[in-house]
Design goal:
Elements: H1 2-23, E1 53-56, E2 60-63, H2 68-71, E3 77-81, H3 90-98, E4 104-105, H4 110-117, E5 126-131, H5 132-140, E6 144-149, E7 154-159
Parallel strand pairs: 4-7
Antiparallel strand pairs: 1-2, 3-5, 6-7
Length: 188
């Protein structure tokens, strides 16, 4: 038995030596001097910008910088439900959305007063979650452009496009008589 045991070790060592020797048998031809390219040094990484952070809890770090919504107040996210008032107008809705935003509503131009007097659609009784800018544009509708004065923190609207100074022309009503037909087998 001891002879078999020794020969197994010798066979295993021989196989290992053959495997290692075969990996080293490959050689490459030296490169010609014309084929060598100059390799520029890798660019040094820029010094990382210092961002102050504070640790909250064991694994949470919070940057000490204002968010985008804190810099641009029209980017703040809102989720607003309008008070259920049967006589609510678009102006009431705009004022309610702007209530705690830091902005006020312009009330100077006659055309804007027309916008503010429009009835508030039922679809606008709940807005959000969306940005304040999107909520204001939703309330005003596509016929109005939003202008924010960041200096005075006022939000103003003006009519969309080139017809801002022209009064809208109401479409003519159809004056043709409509003929009705009784239902078959029904009551007159």
């Amino acid at each position: 038995m001891p002879a078999i045991h020794v020969s197994r070790h010798l066979v295993g060592a021989g196989l290992l030596a053959a495997a290692l020797a075969s990996g080293c048998a490959t050689t490459t031809a030296p490169l010609a001097p014309d084929a060598i390219e100059e390799v520029s040094a890798a660019p040094e990484p820029e010094a990382p910008e210092y961002i102050p952070v504070v640790r909250y809890g064991r694994y949470t770090l919070v940057e000490l910088a204002p968010t985008a919504a804190q810099r641009d107040l029209l980017l703040q996210t809102i989720d607003v439900s309008m008070p259920e008032d049967a006589r609510a107008t678009v102006g009431d809705g705009l004022r309610h959305v702007l209530k705690r935003s830091g902005y006020g509503l312009c009330e100077t131009a006659h055309a804007v007063i027309e916008l503010y007097a429009l009835p508030l659609p039922a679809a606008h009784l709940h807005l959000g979650p969306m940005t304040l800018r999107d909520a204001l544009l939703t309330l005003a509708g596509p016929a109005w452009d939003l202008h924010a004065d960041d200096r005075t923190r006022q939000v103003c609207f003006e009519r969309h496009g080139r017809d801002a100074d022209a009064d809208p022309v109401p479409e003519p009503l159809a004056t043709e008589a409509v003929q009705t037909f009784p239902l078959a087998g029904g009551q007159p």
